[in-house]
Amino acid sequence: MSLLENCIIVSIIIILILFFIFFPLSEGNFNTSTYTNFISRIKKSTEFDDKETSEIINDLSNCVKDERIIKIFSTTQKPVEWNNYKKKIIKKKIINKGSKIYKEKKEFLLNLEKEYGIPKEILISILGIESRYGKSKGNFNTLNSLYTLSFYNFRRTTFFTEELYAFLILCKKRDMERKKITGSYVGALGCSKFMPSNYVKYAIDLDLFNNLEDCCIAICRFFNDKKWDCTTSILVKKDKGLCFKFEDIQVSEHLNDILKQENKEDMCGTINLDCILQYNYSTKYAMAVYFLGEHIRNYS
């Protein structure tokens, strides 16, 4: 290889390095190819007629990047200690409100528990954590959130484009105005904070924005699909032989740490704890659901 050829190769490498330094392929840059492919998918979809397709494309063209979401995803979050996390979740007013709903809807919850085997206090606990029983459903424009996460967030592009597509289907099937729907910054919807794909799969016939009973039904359907075992609890004594083997070693480590802090070292998580983790993949969240549920049941 000649000296000239070596110089050309070195120059190209330097240019590429400088390009990725000043224009990194990360959160904040628009992914044109992903957007083009998504628009093509909408055009080919049998879910939407020509008029609907045109309106969707127009709505997407008017979406803007939400810098708040980009900042959240690009900022490294410091781990929250269990005791601090618990204090934010398990508060007296949340317990009292949950206990009130538990009593008011006791007959409905009992019937639901008979049908699905999901403890009623767990359903109420999840609604308390997710949205303060419908009081805090999120104020991020969902179409804009999913647009931002689909085309500006390169780490989970596939996941969020699927959620955006599901959201568009959901809005059509439930006759919702897609430009006016709000939720969490990741696109989770309603009092139970279902992602659009789960809303379509488990609750297309339900109102998760305004009806807590519908939310309880949807959560039961979700857990039932994830193989909830109605013959056991979420935590059991280790000697019962029902300990679930979590594939993620960090889950086991975090769980053991929490159980130690709660003086429950003789306990372990069952398949039902894994079901809650599939609802929200956080060991702290799953354990908060359990402990808040215990408080709600004891105060009811």
Walk me through the structure.
61% of the residues lie in helices and 3% in strands. By secondary structure, it is mainly α. The protein has a two-stranded antiparallel sheet with strand order 1-2. Strands 3-4 form a two-stranded antiparallel sheet. The model is unreliable at 16-25 (pLDDT under 50).
Q: What descriptors fit this protein?
A:
300 residues; mainly alpha; Helicase, Ruva Protein, domain 3; Lysozyme; 2 domains; two-stranded antiparallel sheet; 15 helices
The total beta strand count reads: 4
The total number of structural domains is 2
Instruction: Please state the structural category.
Output: mainly alpha
Give the termini distance in whole angstroms: 82 Å
Q: Strand-and-helix sequence, N→C?
A: HHHHHHHHEHHEHHEHEHH
The proportion of residues in beta strands is under 5%
CATH fold naming of the largest domain: Lysozyme
Largest sheet: 2 strands, antiparallel
Topology:
Blueprint: H1 3-22, H2 32-44, H3 50-61, H4 67-74, H5 82-89, H6 92-104, H7 106-116, H8 120-131, E1 140-141, H9 142-151, H10 157-173, E2 182-183, H11 196-203, H12 212-225, E3 235-237, H13 249-261, E4 267-269, H14 271-279, H15 283-298
Antiparallel strand pairs: 1-2, 3-4
Helix pairs in contact: 6-8, 6-15, 7-12, 8-15, 9-10, 10-11, 11-12, 14-15
In short:
InterPro entries: Lysozyme-like_dom_sf, MltB-like, SLT_2. With 300 residues, the chain is mainly alpha-helical.
